[in-house]
Amino acid sequence: MWGEVSLFAGGWVLGMVTAVPLLRRRAPVTVAAPVPPPVPVLPFAVQEAVTAFGEELARLPFDPAEPGTAPAVLKEYRAALDAYERATSAGTPADVMAALHAGRAALIRMEARQAGRPVPIDALPRLPDAPQSDEGAPDDGPLPPVPERFVTRGTGNGEHLIDRPEPGRFALLEFRNQDAEYVRVEGVIRTEDLVDRDGALLTGTGHLRATSLLKPGLTHLAVGALRDGAGWSARVRPLTDASPLETEWRGTGYHVLSYGGGPALLTVQARGDTHWRAMFVCGCFRGWDCDCPPPRWPAGTPDSTDAVHGTADGRKTLRLPRAGYLDLSASDGGGEWYLTLQPVRPSPPPQRTRRKNARRSAA
Fold first, then answer.
1. What is the pTM of this model?
2. I need a labelling partner for 284 at 20 to 30 A (CA). Which of 9, 66, 138, 315 fits?
């Protein structure tokens, strides 16, 4: 019995010894392939901005193969296409934004060349305040804003190209200051033929919300803020979006109101500690060259020019001769407005005396 057990045990041990090498040969060790780095996924809003720009390029009523196309126009078109290609292949939101901004500027220049208007040029870059070192700088900074048509967002001082919904026409500038610091916005003409500043469009302190009239010739906005990190946004709208002037209207700061009536007297009451001005802009937009016939104001109608102004509290009367726009401005974005509108019936034209027919009188 013990012999059978030992023989069985010996056979079992021998089987295990010979089976181990066989098991090792059936399970070879495999080396894992290297894992490729993850492909960066851009934010959805950035991807949407790239798609929107590509669709805008596809809708352009422009054929580069059309005979007689100006080389300068073709150059801007190709620059916009190149910018779109860079945006589609960029790996970071910052690179995408930079490409889209370059493409937008190319389209603005292209449209100006096609229409025969002055062509905007790039603003000069800001000089650094002091030499800076890259050592210790954070790798990831704040992401640039996603491009949106007719909207510019920034922080601190800088000069920015104006994107207009109706190039070559007056427009509304809606400015929002997101910081409690002082801000000043000026209109700039920066083209291939002229560089000039048109003066302040608005100034203010605190969380300013202002609407100002934007002249057709202005190409850039110069934003100056006391604190370099102060955030702001500017949106350009067509002038037809202006709020209507009602019989009574109340508001504060900077506003542009549309007026579609006939001759009227506008009583302007202002309250505050700043300088204010209410100016009528004729719908012909010719300024001093306006040759629209004036209405026949009744005798005793208060006289006025196209603007009234004052400092601190005041009450004045402004003539509104015809349809147009009312540009209200109050320095530092303060001050309160109370406007009342009173239509005026023009005096009838003088009657002409008819000469009697001599023959009939003689008869």
1. 0.78
2. 315
